[in-house]
User: What shape does this take?
Amino acid sequence: MTDRISLRQLHYFVACAEAGTMTGAARRLFVSQGAVSVAIAQLESRTGVQLLLRSKAKGLTLTEAGRLLLPEARSLLARTDELQAGMRDIGRIPAGRLVIGCFTTIAPFLIPPLLEDFQAAHSRVAVDFVEGSLTDLQGLLREGRCELAVLYGVDIQAGVDFDTLYETRPHVLLPPGHPLAEQEEIRLADLAGHDMIALDVPPSLSYFTDVLASAGVTPAVRHRTESFEMVRSLVARGVGYSLLIQRPRPDVSYEGRGLSVRRIKDVVRPLPVVLARPAGSRLTHRAAAFAAFCQERAAAYAEAP
Assistant: This one.
């Protein structure tokens, strides 16, 4: 049949959606702009709907139909890449390009060892990653821009499924000269009245606020920042305390100033770290291999000094 959608048309469509212009897509694909225009026209003819709106001022904009097609096109092209890369061993050896997402504060602790060890075990899989917030990563999963994502298991949106990898609990971060730093364990109630430096990357602030509220404490937030290291630097300068999940080694700021890390004496609701995927999707062999690898190794990586 001559009226079927072709992989080339889908490939050109995804390139247009990502580049934002026909010219940019053509440059990315190493073809002429005319070839891109013809492919998009053929795809719209095959589907019977307009997928892209053309504007000299704004370039290309996805229609509602285009937004629905985009994640499906990416998913189909990813499976095609896997089939092509692993034809000789199809069904047995994971192969192809795998893009994973990771929550921005978890990434420096988890991604480097995962990349190195998974790559050593699966040399035919080319792994890449993207960092982001909880909202960003779930959007990338639904759009098909990454196959899996490591994030905190709260505020999970419709269209995303997940499996728990391990659970985390917060600690109190203090400047060494803080009066509470003399204690080995901190009661949350003792933080009342002290200035807080808040990590404001969802869901961090809402989680830490709930933790403090469980002890009847309303945090006196002096500064908010999306930077994990900015929090540590401000605490090291004596500006306030903070609650954090991840703990770098050694306990010093960028400036080399010391930090005191103390356990929380109260019983605190844990924050799960999960491996998320698009709801209802069938994982590629490479993604399934990575998921199994995470289940086996992720908790150990998170606890390693």
User: Anything to note?
Assistant: The mean pLDDT is 90. The chain is about 40% helix and 25% strand. The first helix runs from residue 7 to 19.
